[in-house]
Specification:
two-stranded antiparallel sheet; Butyryl-CoA Dehydrogenase, subunit A, domain 2; flavoprotein; 3 domains; 13% strand; 9 strands; transit peptide; 410 residues
């Protein structure tokens, strides 16, 4: 007898089949959910990252050096502004591809992914989305190729999670604006050619401006002594009476919606990237505990170790499925900012926990950069904080659920 459910589903007759295979490193077969083009992009990114970035990262991190030529290499591969159309120098790929690239880059190092994300999401995106056609033609092709490096100035010495309180001011003068103020913790700023800076005008409205290296009164000193993201370069942006011509004002956005739109693009990439770093730590911990023998057997033969590996596998697998779904929603125009906050918060928090656990599973060797996991731990401490802290994203999600904001006491 055919039941109504079976009839509606067109279910075939049951038959005995062999037990499905289980891929320990891809339990829900994420790879099968990608298109052929998406897999090609992922594979190209993986090859470059493993063959070109990985051999450089240990010395770069030790010496706090960012190799400028990496931007040219990424540009040649289409990594910079990858979702922007080919008419402006981008690769024109979808957001799933962008996420897959971020995952592979951060599998090597969060600093490298940060440099790429800033260029793509925080510099090229606002010029593309909020700029004039003249600005797009002038800046985007050279940013896409890596000939120019860009940075994004929103965070200030006294204003991080509260960007609306910024003190940087833009005063209207004949032919343009005069900018005064300072921005802090700015990835790429010491080597930047292009600066997307957000400032308040005299009427209190936040506007975006494109500044260029060499403008009088503009400087970008390097921040020394970081213990995180050491393979990327971070600095300040200091503006002392910088004249910015009218044509460098981003004309198509006003208010915090501008910088927040950029941050959401970056947070999406971080969601994928942080899990790439987590995967590197998970795989390293698995291999180390298989190879390392104590009391006459591999560490991996212990229940505690297997439980930790299972936890890593579970969180990464579920997190990647969420990122993939989010990418599809963004490509469909349905990716809500709150959904991006959910994934950014989940990926970064879980990745940091996984990295710390992997470091512990390496025992004393875990503090040596020969094993890479300590580098990921140090990086992910910053990744969990920037582009919206773990708790700030919780407040975004709390507001979405309750209709009540808890950012201030008002």
């Amino acid at each position: 007898m055919t039941t109504p459910v079976a009839a509606a589903a067109g279910a075939p007759a049951s038959k005995t089949s062999s037990r499905p295979d289980f891929a320990w490193d891809d339990p829900l077969l994420l790879d099968d959910q990608l298109s052929e083009d998406e897999r090609m992009v992922r594979d190209a990114a993986r090859d470059y990252c493993q063959e070109q970035l990985l051999p450089r990262v240990r010395e770069a991190f030790r010496n706090e050096v960012f190799h400028r030529e990496i931007m040219n290499e990424m540009g040649a591969l289409g990594f910079l502004g990858s979702t922007i159309g080919e008419e402006y120098g981008g690769a024109g790929v979808n957001h799933v591809c962008y996420g897959l690239i971020a995952r592979e880059v951060e599998r090597v190092d969060s600093g490298y992914r940060s440099a790429m994300s800033v260029q793509s999401s925080l510099v090229m995106h606002p010029i593309h989305a909020y700029g004039s056609e003249e600005q797009r033609r002038k800046y985007l092709p050279k940013l896409a190729s890596g000939e120019w490096v860009g940075c994004f100035g929103l965070t200030e010495p006294d204003h991080g999670s509260d960007p609306g309180g910024m003190k940087t001011r833009a005063v209207k003068v004949d032919g343009g604006y005069t900018l005064n103020g300072a921005k802090m913790w700015i990835t790429n700023s010491p080597i930047a050619d292009v600066f997307v800076v957000w400032a308040k005008t005299e009427d209190g409205v936040i506007r975006g401006f494109v500044l260029e290296k060499g403008m009088k009164g503009l400087s970008a000193p390097k921040i020394e002594g970081k213990f995180s993201l050491r393979a990327s370069i971070t600095g300040e942006i200091v503006m002392d009476g910088v004249f910015v011509p009218d044509e460098n004002l981003l004309p198509n956005v006003k208010g915090l919606s501008g910088p927040f739109g950029c941050l959401n693009k970056a947070r999406y990439g971080i969601s994928w990237g942080a899990l790439g770093a987590a995967e590197a730590c998970w795989h390293a911990a698995r291999q180390y505990t298989l190879d390392r023998k104590q009391f006459g057997r591999p560490l991996a033969a212990n229940q505690l170790i297997q439980k930790k590996l299972a936890d890593m596998q579970t969180e990464i697998t579920i997190g990647l499925q969420a990122c993939l779904r989010l990418g599809r929603l963004i490509d469909e125009g349905r990716g809500a900012p709150e959904a991006i906050s959910l994934c950014k918060r989940n990926s970064c928090g879980k990745a940091l926990d996984i990295a710390r656990t992997a470091r512990d599973m390496h025992g004393g060797n875990g503090v040596s950069d020969e094993y890479n996991v300590i580098r990921h731990v140090m990086n992910l401490e910053a990744v969990n904080t920037y582009e919206g802290t773990h708790d700030v994203h919780a407040l975004i999600l709390g507001r979405a659920q309750t209709g009540l904001q808890a950012f201030t006491g008002a």
